Amino acid sequence: MTSELGLRERKKLRTRRALVAAAVRLFDEKGYEQTTVDEIAAAVDVSARTFFSYFGTKEDVLFMQAEARGERILEVVDHPLPGESLEDVLIRLYEADVQAFVDDDDLDVALSPVRTRLMLTEPALRARAMRLTAEAQPRLAGALLRAFPDRLDVISAAALVGSFFGAIAAAGIAAHEQGYPADQMLEIGRRATKIAVYGVAALGPPGDSQNATAR
Questions:
Q1: pLDDT tens track for 145-199
Q2: Please, which residues have CB within 8 angstroms of residue 89's CB and are 6 or more apart in sequence?
Q3: Burial of 131 by CB count in 10 Å (0-12 exposed, 13-18 middle, 19+ buried)?
Q4: What is the DSSP string of 129-185?
Q5: What's the first-to-final CA gap in the chain, in angstroms?
Q6: How open is the CA angle 136-138-141, to the nearest 5 degrees?
Q7: What would the pLDDT profile of 196-207 be if each residue is shown by its tens digit?
Q8: Orientation of helix 66-78 relative to helix 123-147, angle to 10°
């Protein structure tokens, strides 16, 4: 897709990506609250005014693709695979969301774990993520209700979506606090999704980190 862009568009895309990468590195090194927009801009040798031509706020650096990710996961629900169950759709939805996060063109894949950690630990970023989740829940519940009217009503669809998002968020925070490495987060989230979908039957026995991420 980049090859189809004009010179001006390619330059803007490179600048935006550079700003995102610089911001994430500075947030990691100095702390989110301690990092200023001026410092992010200076790291890329542009002005603060240029920064604000790409991002409305410092938070926006980490949430630029949130809307696109939301549309991507709704596509999963709107177009279930032949014979796909409600449970399978939710698990595939989680995996599609994670893949969209990893595939974010604005961020070097090596910095994705840093961004994930920042979103789990920085109060302002966690609050922003919670607001976005709250906005996404009714849309997802409505999509599930349309896709599975024989299994869901308005209340059960809303409850299922709430448990789905809540399980992933709570498991991610707990895993970070316990020191799980970033490369296990996908499996931890997948297990949390299965617990939200299947209930206690998906728990399995407690054990070490391998058991915790294998199911």
A1: 999 999 899 999 999 999 988 898 888 888 888 888 777 777 888 888 888 888 7
A2: 76, 77, 80, 144, 147, 148
A3: exposed
A4: HHHHHHHHHHHHHHHHHHH-TTT--HHHHHHHHHHHHHHHHHHHHHHHHTT--GGGH
A5: 37
A6: 105
A7: 888 766 666 655
A8: 20
Token reading at 142: 């409505």
Q: 27-56: b or e for each residue (b if 16 or more CB lie within 10 Å)?
A: bbeeebeebebeebbebbebeeeebeebbe
d(CA 155, CA 130): 21
Structure tokens at 104: 């974010």
> Where does the chain show beta strands of DSSP type E?
none
Q: What contacts 24+ positions apart, CB below 8 Å, involve 40-47?
A: 44/15, 44/18, 44/19, 46/15, 46/19
CA-nearest of 41, 48, 42, 98 to 69 is 98
Residue 201 corresponds to which amino acid?
A
CA distance 58 to 143: 32
